[in-house]
Amino acid sequence: MNVNQQPHMATPYGQPQPGYQGYPQPGYGGDHVPSGYPAQYAPYNGPGSAYQQGPPQGTRGPPTSGAPPVSGAQNYSQFGQGENQNGPPPMGPLPSTQSSFPRPPHPTSQPSAFPAGPPPTSIPSQLPGVMQPQPPVSQPSPYHSGPPTTSTGFPPQVGAPPRPSFPGMQGPPMASQGPPMASQGPPMASQGPPMAQANHILPTQPGMPPGPINASLSGPPPQPGMQGYPPQQNGAFGQVRGPQPGYTGPYPGQPNYGAPPAAPASAPAAPKRLDPDSIPSPIQVIEDDKANKGSEPFTTGVRGQAPPLVTTKFQVKDQGNASPRYIRCTAYNMPCNSDMAKQSQVPLAAVIKPLAPLPPDETPPYLVDHGESGPIRCNRCKAYLCPYMQFSEGGRRFQCGFCNCVTEVPPNYFQHLDHTGKRVDCYDRPELSMGSYDFMTTVDYCKNNKFPQPPAFIFLIDVSYNAVKNGTVGIVCQELKTLLDYLPRENPDVESNIRVGFVTYNKVLHFYNVKASLAQPQMMVVSDVADMFVPLLDGFLVSVSESRVVIESLLDQIPEMFADTRETETVFGPVIQAGLEALKAADCAGKLFVFHSSLPIAEAPGKLKNREDKKLVGTDKEKTLFQPQVSFYNTLAKECVAQGCCVDLFLFPNQYVDVATLGVVPTSTGGSIYKYTYFQAPSDQERFLNDLRRDVQKQVGFDAVMRVRTSTGIRATDFFGAFYMSNTTDVELAGLDCDKTVTVEFRHDDKLSEETGALMQCAVLYTSCSGQRRLRIHNMAVNCCSQLADLYRNCETDTIINFFAKYAYRSVLSSPTKNVRDSLVNQCAQILACYRKNCASPSSAGQLILPECMKLLPVYLNCVLKSDVLQPGADVSLDDRAYLRQLVSTMDVAESHVFFYPHLLPLQKLDVESMALPMAVRDSEERLSRGGVYLLENGLNIFLWVGVSAQQELLQNIFGTPAFSQIDPNMTSLPALDNPFSKRLREIIESVRAQRSRYMKLMVVKQEDKLELIFKHFLVEDKSNSGGASYVDFLCHMHKEIRQLLS
Ligand SMILES: [Zn+2]
């Protein structure tokens, strides 16, 4: 290898490089071009962003900050109206079944044949095609035990408390909002027929007088933070449980919560606590949903229909709304006005996973091409053509479902309407009949008005002493030799055109020239890390196939070169800067893969100090631990976003590395953080390599901008995820991969109508891995209601919990965790109190009445409250908390569900003859049998828990030994034994792993072994050793909170 020591290079910059111009970078050595450039890469700290420069046509328009969401300046907006030179749109064939879906009749009242008259200004009474308004109550539910709600006059809500917010976030803390629910008009019960069925009635407990539940709990009243519960012995719930009298649920031993409450009179002698079997069971709800919704495909044509739960396997048919794999909502029946929304406190949010992968039996989004003038859009709000646009005037115009503006149909897109007012080609065009599709875009949608270059991947490898010693340098280099053949591509038969580059670093950086014409790679050392630059342009980013020999030689040499290094210090900021500068120089977007091991204490921009201080945990200063310790990385992140530079960070720490700070750039650029604490090759290599392989190969879009448009009445007001926002509407993602979600919260800015519902359209403009500029469109319509009971009938608790977790995890940046927890409890209590007050039939105060679709809200909420971020045990490191906080922010609903409520399978009940899994059991120690073996999975870990008296045959089948004492607790994979049980179990583990975005390492936990403490942490229905309440105790606490709100 030729090593060219270049402590400070000047030569390559004698002439300005494309892309460098106008980027004020002192110290470049070359002449600095003073001004007059369009400043594509203007620093973000100026008044504008990279997206605002240039002439109006073909750029993304002026910044939208402060602009109203619907009108005014738009990003990537002013395209294609007027000329409308649409070529014949080449269309992918639609499945023939698409044309045969039953459609509601089209409205007949639409204006017809106005040759040049004024556009109709009123909202059509019905939306075209698929969006037939639903009657307010149409959801058959097995739980309904009362008469259907009638839509009789709901009293105007006055004096409803403002929406709560976390202290320090937006507005006063909830606690200061006075007595909620008071002075809100007459109670619903006085309005004629009872408002709603009591969907879930917690039976009054045996032995409990029909009074307050808490009255029968001994001990001091619960303290704030819920640490004052009476001590609870693990496993103390061990009453013999059988099917409960009066319950005929499909699962023995599980109560049927839809049934009328059990008669208190039949109560046996008085136990002091609730029987866990009598409170809502997650397993029961999951199994019921599987039974009720798992057999039929879920069709998206009916507005406001809640999809099956994330735990149910189902097929989706797109009939006009986005699949729940792309969008899940907290409520599928939104309140018509903000007063109702405030009163209920139910968050209105959508969890959006724009590039979600689909199972093989579902059709991926079609690619629609509207020709050279680009996708057809509403003239005013710029919404893209979708099933919510209503055509009129014989097909010459369409009215926007979002803003009602009427737009002329481009001549080349003209089509006649049928007798129902639908375009006759409606079902041949995804953009008129489907919830999700892609648009080809034009050059107008490209940054700087030119088509993007293919993206690049740059691998930046820490070669300091720690990284060499723990083996990661060798592992990464070895793996990359194979992995580079699996870079993402759109057509599996064509080579990926992603280019690659390589950097190694400790406290200096080494760049490598791997040009195909070289016999050997060349190293260039940059030791002046204060002003990072790329010392070579030609030969740094190369095509894998062209430079394969040189790259392999480099990857062979790197581990040898640094094998004897004594350098322990590392830099970090300059590493990202180096990758960023390389992408700038190549004028492309891309992804950096950084493999890093230690706190960057070497003298350099972004240098950090060890500020780990566990004494701050639980204090008002705890929030500082989640905040970055320097602002350097925030600034760097903005620059990365402007370039479309996404950063994925693989951490291999042996001590505190300040994840809160190192994670700023990844979490602002749509990147991921992977963390392998105390990495040891033998036990952790498999997990790391699987993560790396998936991360490199997965579908990803670059330089993405996401915009959510909504119909008049609501708007997107808050966003959660790994992105950057330079204004209030555009979510900028340097990278957006298929695992990432963006959660959007909506608030009312006007009234919604039950007739038209609430519409949203999520448009993501991105550069595909092949360098095409595309738009991914997802449309979603939900119902609107003027009755609270309808809202409470159509919520999705798993999505609400996903939202609450993200909200709370962000709030810890600005508020003490205790306040965050209290606010969550308060908001959920208000949600449930509002239901009790307005929707449930009158009953004794001693009964906790929960809406059917929210009956798991308390148990899941408790899991969020006692999670490591909000209530850590003594053994949870600050880095782990920062890591989990960032991880949860991009989780989809399936991931957050299993993360907060792990999946626990009793393997002794596994039937090897069947493909079905045994029914899961609840996450509580008392559910574990000493004679059993259990698999627990939470999306990050898999545990195999082995009871001390596990049957010998079971152990023999799994471990190849009948003796409990002979099981090696250090094994990370099960022996491949030649018996059906072993095969089936390993299949199950593999299939569980395949469902998750991160590889889960297997840990074997023997009962009564010291590792069991870790395992018990995931038994989330039990009291935790960090002070988190048990489910039973927390439910009592919630009940008390609700009763306080009601009294
Ligand atoms: Zn519009």
From TrEMBL:
<feature type="region of interest" description="Disordered">
    <location>
        <begin position="1"/>
        <end position="280"/>
    </location>
</feature>
<dbReference type="GO" id="GO:0008270">
    <property type="term" value="F:zinc ion binding"/>
</dbReference>
<dbReference type="GO" id="GO:0000149">
    <property type="term" value="F:SNARE binding"/>
</dbReference>
<dbReference type="GO" id="GO:0006886">
    <property type="term" value="P:intracellular protein transport"/>
</dbReference>
<dbReference type="GO" id="GO:0005789">
    <property type="term" value="C:endoplasmic reticulum membrane"/>
</dbReference>
<dbReference type="GO" id="GO:0030127">
    <property type="term" value="C:COPII vesicle coat"/>
</dbReference>
<dbReference type="InterPro" id="IPR050550">
    <property type="entry name" value="SEC23_SEC24_subfamily"/>
</dbReference>
<dbReference type="Pfam" id="PF04811">
    <property type="entry name" value="Sec23_trunk"/>
</dbReference>
<feature type="compositionally biased region" description="Low complexity">
    <location>
        <begin position="140"/>
        <end position="156"/>
    </location>
</feature>
<feature type="domain" description="Sec23/Sec24 helical">
    <location>
        <begin position="797"/>
        <end position="896"/>
    </location>
</feature>
<dbReference type="InterPro" id="IPR036174">
    <property type="entry name" value="Znf_Sec23_Sec24_sf"/>
</dbReference>
<feature type="domain" description="Sec23/Sec24 trunk">
    <location>
        <begin position="452"/>
        <end position="696"/>
    </location>
</feature>
<dbReference type="InterPro" id="IPR041742">
    <property type="entry name" value="Sec24-like_trunk_dom"/>
</dbReference>
<keyword id="KW-0653">Protein transport</keyword>
<dbReference type="InterPro" id="IPR012990">
    <property type="entry name" value="Beta-sandwich_Sec23_24"/>
</dbReference>
<dbReference type="Pfam" id="PF04810">
    <property type="entry name" value="zf-Sec23_Sec24"/>
</dbReference>
<keyword id="KW-0813">Transport</keyword>
<dbReference type="GO" id="GO:0070971">
    <property type="term" value="C:endoplasmic reticulum exit site"/>
</dbReference>
<dbReference type="GO" id="GO:0090110">
    <property type="term" value="P:COPII-coated vesicle cargo loading"/>
</dbReference>
<feature type="compositionally biased region" description="Low complexity">
    <location>
        <begin position="52"/>
        <end position="64"/>
    </location>
</feature>
<comment type="similarity">
    <text>Belongs to the SEC23/SEC24 family. SEC24 subfamily.</text>
</comment>
<dbReference type="InterPro" id="IPR029006">
    <property type="entry name" value="ADF-H/Gelsolin-like_dom_sf"/>
</dbReference>
<dbReference type="InterPro" id="IPR036465">
    <property type="entry name" value="vWFA_dom_sf"/>
</dbReference>
<dbReference type="InterPro" id="IPR006900">
    <property type="entry name" value="Sec23/24_helical_dom"/>
</dbReference>
<keyword id="KW-0968">Cytoplasmic vesicle</keyword>
<feature type="compositionally biased region" description="Low complexity">
    <location>
        <begin position="12"/>
        <end position="26"/>
    </location>
</feature>
<feature type="domain" description="Sec23/Sec24 beta-sandwich">
    <location>
        <begin position="701"/>
        <end position="784"/>
    </location>
</feature>
<dbReference type="InterPro" id="IPR036175">
    <property type="entry name" value="Sec23/24_helical_dom_sf"/>
</dbReference>
<dbReference type="InterPro" id="IPR006896">
    <property type="entry name" value="Sec23/24_trunk_dom"/>
</dbReference>
<feature type="compositionally biased region" description="Low complexity">
    <location>
        <begin position="242"/>
        <end position="271"/>
    </location>
</feature>
<dbReference type="InterPro" id="IPR007123">
    <property type="entry name" value="Gelsolin-like_dom"/>
</dbReference>
<feature type="domain" description="Zinc finger Sec23/Sec24-type">
    <location>
        <begin position="375"/>
        <end position="413"/>
    </location>
</feature>
<feature type="compositionally biased region" description="Polar residues">
    <location>
        <begin position="72"/>
        <end position="86"/>
    </location>
</feature>
<feature type="compositionally biased region" description="Low complexity">
    <location>
        <begin position="225"/>
        <end position="235"/>
    </location>
</feature>
<dbReference type="Pfam" id="PF04815">
    <property type="entry name" value="Sec23_helical"/>
</dbReference>
<dbReference type="InterPro" id="IPR036180">
    <property type="entry name" value="Gelsolin-like_dom_sf"/>
</dbReference>
<dbReference type="Pfam" id="PF08033">
    <property type="entry name" value="Sec23_BS"/>
</dbReference>
<dbReference type="InterPro" id="IPR006895">
    <property type="entry name" value="Znf_Sec23_Sec24"/>
</dbReference>
<feature type="domain" description="Gelsolin-like">
    <location>
        <begin position="918"/>
        <end position="989"/>
    </location>
</feature>
<dbReference type="GO" id="GO:0005829">
    <property type="term" value="C:cytosol"/>
</dbReference>
<dbReference type="Pfam" id="PF00626">
    <property type="entry name" value="Gelsolin"/>
</dbReference>
<protein>
    <submittedName>
        <fullName>SEC24 homolog C, COPII coat complex component</fullName>
    </submittedName>
</protein>
